[in-house]
Amino acid sequence: MTTTPIISRTQRELRGQLAEWRGSGDRIAFVPTMGALHEGHLSLVRLARKKAERVIVSIFVNPTQFAPGEDLEAYPRTEAADSEKLAAEGVDLIYIPLPNSMYNAHHATAIKVGGVATGLETDHRPTFFDGVALVVTKLFNRVQPDVAIFGEKDYQQLATIRRLVEDLDMPIHIIGAPIARDEYGLALSSRNQYFNAQSLAKARQLNTIMFDCAESMERGANVDRAAEDAAQALLDAGFSGVDYVQVRSKNSLTVLEGGVLNKPARLLIAAHCDGVRLIDNCAVNVKK
Amino acid sequence: MTTTPIISRTQRELRGQLAEWRGSGDRIAFVPTMGALHEGHLSLVRLARKKAERVIVSIFVNPTQFAPGEDLEAYPRTEAADSEKLAAEGVDLIYIPLPNSMYNAHHATAIKVGGVATGLETDHRPTFFDGVALVVTKLFNRVQPDVAIFGEKDYQQLATIRRLVEDLDMPIHIIGAPIARDEYGLALSSRNQYFNAQSLAKARQLNTIMFDCAESMERGANVDRAAEDAAQALLDAGFSGVDYVQVRSKNSLTVLEGGVLNKPARLLIAAHCDGVRLIDNCAVNVKK
């Protein structure tokens, strides 16, 4: 089903194409990305294909979600390869906004989501979700999709975007897509390409430790103890630091009291492996 | 041209009607209000009529833009009279969202506009524009107008909304409408109905003092001195307090250096008259 996607770099081009499709009654599914596309992204695109007549993928490495010292400059940019992959998936339009078209010198508006965006990632990347909320709002207003797809890999981000969309009454249906993993269970990430073979082997232990931890919580282990054990297991496996191992309520990401879980929850982990920060998460399927 | 406007109280009703009009290719002009409608509002509605096939007016007394101690409870609610006035203007739809549909218990998203929203009103009502930016964004996302009309009476608010819309890439054209005044030049305001005859006579001096001040600036007076003189004139006229008399750049509301103006500017005033806070503003037409 390879087609040649339209590549739009300006809002004018984008708007023209959108008007044509809307005029034909086509629904639009949108997958915002920062490029460096892998199978995880492509699984989102395939889901998007099922949801609407037209699929738009944006590629924009958003500076406002990187903190000073993070890998904004080093973040992989692979536009030609990305475009080929998207063509092979039958994407209709790739929107690659010109960097200086996104934030002009007079820009003065900030969006802050509380609740679900509190703690976890925010404890370690304090302005991350502010940057995500702003760029997602801008892209949504430019693309005006009916449906937008986000991966569960960034679970707190997905919850934050759901909150944002509901709170601001954006007429967009947000769909979460399951985490794509390699054959060893490592969650796919553009940052995995920073690893050599040895580091990759180490990184692949993260998911094993996480699923073990979730299973022990499902079997009735004390959640604080189980989380501590998982964090220790990560350090024992050679991870240089653990930002968090936390279990939260499934949808609102409420902090849960310690003890034994009595309702479905989500286990979320962030840890450092040879200079790369990895995040992962999984369901904890406790029966109500 | 009296028609019977549709009154929508739920998003479902609103969305259904919007879809029908959009399907017919009708453009939509939107005038958000807090009700208590006067000729000032109706002048916005008449401008809206010229801009689009369909005119929607919302009535919602937005709690998030009132601070504790302000007149949220006392703010006049006159829905029946408002509806009659809007019917006489040929408004197509009046959107009166149910109060509890606007902010639910899980609401966690805030919007903050800097720049133009800094100082002036914000010095005296620190969360006012946060409340305005949030409710306007929500109403825009619900109504999805092509055009929205705001009065220049709330000049800093108009500038803030222009900034918000540009920064978030909302596909909406914002139009400012001139200030409607009574025969004595008093800017029309829903809060004017708080005045008795004596207070009204006092309030009517505000615009005279303001226009005199602008004229002296146009003739080359030192702006700081002219502003001080105007503030003193207000106190001499019986105003109980002056929040600000300030000249700012016309569009970006930049604070101007003292001295003599050398480009078009805006003079903005807020002052207290017998328990009512009045604001007003006017152009200062200095030739470049």
Automatic annotation (TrEMBL), chains A, B:
<dbReference type="InterPro" id="IPR042176">
    <property type="entry name" value="Pantoate_ligase_C"/>
</dbReference>
<feature type="binding site">
    <location>
        <begin position="188"/>
        <end position="191"/>
    </location>
    <ligand>
        <name>ATP</name>
    </ligand>
</feature>
<feature type="binding site">
    <location>
        <position position="65"/>
    </location>
    <ligand>
        <name>beta-alanine</name>
    </ligand>
</feature>
<dbReference type="GO" id="GO:0004592">
    <property type="term" value="F:pantoate-beta-alanine ligase activity"/>
</dbReference>
<dbReference type="GO" id="GO:0005829">
    <property type="term" value="C:cytosol"/>
</dbReference>
<dbReference type="Pfam" id="PF02569">
    <property type="entry name" value="Pantoate_ligase"/>
</dbReference>
<keyword id="KW-0436">Ligase</keyword>
<feature type="binding site">
    <location>
        <begin position="34"/>
        <end position="41"/>
    </location>
    <ligand>
        <name>ATP</name>
    </ligand>
</feature>
<comment type="function">
    <text>Catalyzes the condensation of pantoate with beta-alanine in an ATP-dependent reaction via a pantoyl-adenylate intermediate.</text>
</comment>
<feature type="binding site">
    <location>
        <begin position="151"/>
        <end position="154"/>
    </location>
    <ligand>
        <name>ATP</name>
    </ligand>
</feature>
<dbReference type="InterPro" id="IPR014729">
    <property type="entry name" value="Rossmann-like_a/b/a_fold"/>
</dbReference>
<feature type="binding site">
    <location>
        <position position="65"/>
    </location>
    <ligand>
        <name>(R)-pantoate</name>
    </ligand>
</feature>
<keyword id="KW-0067">ATP-binding</keyword>
<dbReference type="GO" id="GO:0005524">
    <property type="term" value="F:ATP binding"/>
</dbReference>
<feature type="binding site">
    <location>
        <position position="157"/>
    </location>
    <ligand>
        <name>(R)-pantoate</name>
    </ligand>
</feature>
<dbReference type="InterPro" id="IPR004821">
    <property type="entry name" value="Cyt_trans-like"/>
</dbReference>
<comment type="pathway">
    <text>Cofactor biosynthesis; (R)-pantothenate biosynthesis; (R)-pantothenate from (R)-pantoate and beta-alanine: step 1/1.</text>
</comment>
<comment type="subunit">
    <text>Homodimer.</text>
</comment>
<feature type="binding site">
    <location>
        <position position="180"/>
    </location>
    <ligand>
        <name>ATP</name>
    </ligand>
</feature>
<protein>
    <recommendedName>
        <fullName>Pantothenate synthetase</fullName>
        <ecNumber>6.3.2.1</ecNumber>
    </recommendedName>
</protein>
<feature type="active site" description="Proton donor">
    <location>
        <position position="41"/>
    </location>
</feature>
<keyword id="KW-0963">Cytoplasm</keyword>
<keyword id="KW-0547">Nucleotide-binding</keyword>
<dbReference type="InterPro" id="IPR003721">
    <property type="entry name" value="Pantoate_ligase"/>
</dbReference>
<keyword id="KW-0566">Pantothenate biosynthesis</keyword>
<dbReference type="GO" id="GO:0015940">
    <property type="term" value="P:pantothenate biosynthetic process"/>
</dbReference>
<comment type="similarity">
    <text>Belongs to the pantothenate synthetase family.</text>
</comment>
